[in-house]
Design a protein that fits this description.
The protein is an all-alpha fold. The protein has helices at 9-21, 26-42. This is CopG family transcriptional regulator.
Length: 43
């Protein structure tokens, strides 16, 4: 289940740019960013 959270327009734009630069759809980009963030927090 995904949380219903507010993401700023700026942050959403950064994720969209990341997706476009890496040939990902938006869902894939969010998944990669979340996984990378979790790995960083767990390290």
């Amino acid at each position: 289940m995904r949380p219903n959270i507010d993401i700023s327009h700026t942050l959403g734009g950064r994720i969209k740019d990341y997706a476009e630069e890496n040939n990902l759809d938006l869902s894939e980009a969010y998944t990669e960013v979340l996984e990378a963030g979790l790995s960083e927090l767990e390290a």
